[in-house]
Amino acid sequence: MKKGRVTLTLLKTLGTCRRRFHKTPNVAATHRHQTTMEEQQLHSDRYSFNPTLKWNPEVHNYFAKAYGADRFSRISIALTRPSRYSCIRVNTMRSTTDAVIEKLRAILKESSSGSGDVSENGANGNLALVESEDGDSNPLRGDCLGAGAVSKCQIPGMEYVVFVWGSGPRHINYGYAPDLPPPKEVIVSRKCAEAVLRGAQAYVPGVMACSAHVEKGDTVAVSVAVEQKGVDGGWGIGMTRGTVLQGSQADPYYFERNGLYIGQGTAMMSRAGLFRVPEGVGVEMKNRVYELHSFHNVLEGEIFLQNLPSIVAAHALDPQKGERILDMCAAPGGKTTAIAILMKDEGEIIATDRSHNKVLDIQKRANEMGLSCIKTFKLDALKSVSRGNHTNASIGPSSCDANNGMANKVSDSSNVQGEGILSIIEDRLKTEVMEENGNGEKANGKVYLSKADIRKSMRRARNGPGRNQSLGGRVDGSKGFSPNSFDRVLLDAPCSALGLRPRLFAGEETVESLRNHGKYQRRMFDQAVQLARPGGVIVYSTCTINPGENEALVRYALDKYKYLSLAPQHPRLGGPGLVGSCEFPDGYLEEWLRPGEENLVQRFDPSSPLDTIGFFIAKFIVGSKDG
Q: Is 543 a catalytic residue?
């Protein structure tokens, strides 16, 4: 009996040891599984789109004080994403809204049927068939369901506006696996990435770096290199174009690119070709974080892609048939043509801009749309009011001496030296890279011009304009206009453009530069006030979130010109303006609106359900200027 108990005890002990022995590998397997899961999560975070907009610390504090920390945080996040729909204005002088909607639906259907790309979840990657992951509470959508759907605007008076709905953000499987080589990759410039997020392809000039051994037809992940502050205090990407990526942490911007992957595409040429040819599509995007349809060269003359707040600004002006209207800083001509259509092309619209090439762009747009009431002139907005005895509204081509300081001589490709070839080139380059910004909006004047770009443009100027260049066009100059000579004036002022989206970089703006924008805008507004007749209207607008360029301008206008008053706007889609003031550390006090004025302006918040760009509109009635 004793022996049996010993045997039983021994068997139990052996069984316990055996069980413990079998449990040990399971613990190790669990540990390996957890490690793998953590590694996959780490790379899932890397291969995602979750950018952080970095601001100058003083600018950040200023905006946080103006909006409140939480609201400014939401605005900053929204600015890094595109609007999830395209807003299209129909040229009702040439077509109807219903006809355009049918054409757009046919185009989208053809586009979707021609795409064989399938996303991870089995849905076709084309816009027309991809649904948004996070729903859509945009009040503009109404009963319109599904990405790629086309709907008519239901706002009274704006039925000629059409929305084409996109989707995003979408999760993309870039093919990463711990036991496989990293995905082949292409790094594009920040401006190229912002265009891709709006629906463009990745063009060759925007490609900065590429994995080794990329061949035509390869699938590549597309990430973006955002400017970083250098040791000298300047901003740049610190990367030589053509850099080879090895897929290791030694690659340029390896850690900075975490959360900055904008999609997946097919290389349209080998790595060597990407850095040898000067133009063309480098990567055809097949799977995008945001799916938005590109309307480049679609229904030209019938439609115009334009942000909703810009269309509202034209409505706020309330142009009437037969009136004489001035559009200061009119390029690229979106609001100019919107005003002309609202007037049924009856009346006179004077559209001015200081840039020769921008004036040509306005002319081209008006001609495409068949609008005859628009007259364009090259004129600095700060010289809009004629001086001395120069009361003529305008002058004809080449009718002014080139030495009289008015810079209105007609130029072509053979005599661009008359205006200074370098200034012409720099202005043209700035126009190309930032004027339209994909949505017909002006941006600020700060862009990065490489020496290579300048040399290339100098060769172009010497050799002729080429088929796709507009340097050879003819424009009229102006000595300014007589005071009180316009029924209505639109001043869509050049600004810091901090409302445009998507925006992946904002670090360059400082409190001082923001103040300088405001000073410049006040000088332009002074010109507008002189030109608008008593009883007339002035509409002031910007595409920035900066109160110093918005509410502070309104405060300046109302305090300086007692005969100006704010007027209600129709339609009213934006939110109220900011009331109060802000005192800066240096003692400067910036005053905004006073109680009761906030609902007479429109402020479009990019983080609001309307999902628009950041925008501001103020409408003034001009009273009697006597006394």
A: yes
